[in-house]
Amino acid sequence: MSSLWEHLRVRWTVLRSRPAPGLRTAKATLAVVAAYLLTAVLGVSDHPMVAPLVALLVVQLTLYKTVVHGIGKVVAVLAGVLVAVFVANIVGVTWWSLGAVVAGSLLIGKLLRLGPHLFEVPITAMLLLEVGATGGLGVSRVGEAIVGAVVGIAVSVLVAPPLYVQPAGDAIGELAHRMADFTRGFADGLRRPTWSRADADHWLRAARALRADVVRVDQAVAQAEESARLHPRARSARRGWPRLRSTLTGLERAHITLRTTARAVLDRTYYLPEDEQGNAYTARQRTALADLLTTAAAAIDAVAPIAGADDPQEARSRVHALLADLDEQQQSLNSLLAIRPEQDQAAWKQHGALLSSIDRLSVEIATAASEPELDNDFDLIAASGD
Question: Any idea where the domains of the chain sit in the sequence?
Fold first, then answer.
């Protein structure tokens, strides 16, 4: 009963820390309506169109993106407005002038280095050509673009700007669980009596496949760091940022080490004839390596709550206890794999590569669980949010 209550408490904490469902939709809708009404009240345009459009485009996932993208979108819209005004007043709208608008808009966008906002220049220009951009109407569209950008940024600043620290912590925990599941599966594979090069190749491919998860989580952590820029509540989450990055760094390196371990096991089979691949390691050696990997999996699993926990000391203590067991198992494996180079040069090299990988794995797990030092980059992020 107590474990169920604890699980529900943790889930409630996670859900409460995340942005409310539909928040971005509500903010975008509010920005569009507010931009339309403000443009009408200020008398900038009788039929506001550009202001709601710019406000919609400006509202982004993070406050930092809103400001940066807001500037880019305003420049893109203004360039499109100027192109449309020029064409409508000088040459009129024809099939060839439409082509000139698109080509000219793209050229101007590249000269202004608008990047992801490049195609917003011709889109804006064509939209205005459709509704007419002659005389004072073109000038009013410029004013609309500015009003829309201001409204979009204001809505993003005032209406629950999100911090993605907790979702990033959850993503790191999920990555740790996936890596632990892989490591346990690798251990189970080593325990099978009918073991072969195909099994070793399967686990190497599985280790490589984890790279996609590592990249996804790295993007989540980058989003968490970005969400803190310019955020008014950045200081409150400051303690969590270094832990996110240091835990992920340790897991990233642990993933590389697991891949190297799988490669060392596979490489050993290439030094034996095909009918002797199952004897690349003795039953005792494979059992010892499997036991060690099972302990490593438990240690990686124990890393999972560290990134998102308010007080990670209990989790760290568990990781360190498991690492102590891992060290003892590593000493035992060292004895089982000990061989003199003059006895078998290939086995000596391959056993050494495997033991080196196992040693690195222990170090990287310890790094993932360690208390990070405050990084200057995080100081700058926090300062920008204060």
Answer: 16-158, 165-385
H/E element, 200: helix 197-209
Tokens of 232: 């008014």
Residue type for 50, please?
V
How far are the Cα atoms of 83, 85, 92, 100 from residue 96, in angstroms, in the given order?
14, 16, 10, 6
With a CB cutoff of 8 Å and minimum separation 6, the contacts of 152 are 31, 35, 54, 55, 56, 57, 58, 59, 66, 70
Among residues 337, 346, 361, 357, the alpha carbon closest in space to that of 287 is found at: 337
CA-CA distance, 182 to 198, in Å (whole number)? 17
Question: Which amino acid, one-letter code, is at 214?
Answer: V
Rounded CA gap, 244 and 372, in Å?
9
pTM for the model: 0.64
The CATH topology of domain 165-385 is Methane Monooxygenase Hydroxylase; Chain G, domain 1 (1.20.58)
Kindly report, residue by residue over 54-101, the tens digit of the pLDDT.
788 777 656 666 666 667 777 887 787 778 777 777 777 777 777 888
| Nearest Cα residue to 281 out of 203, 333, 356, 204 | 333
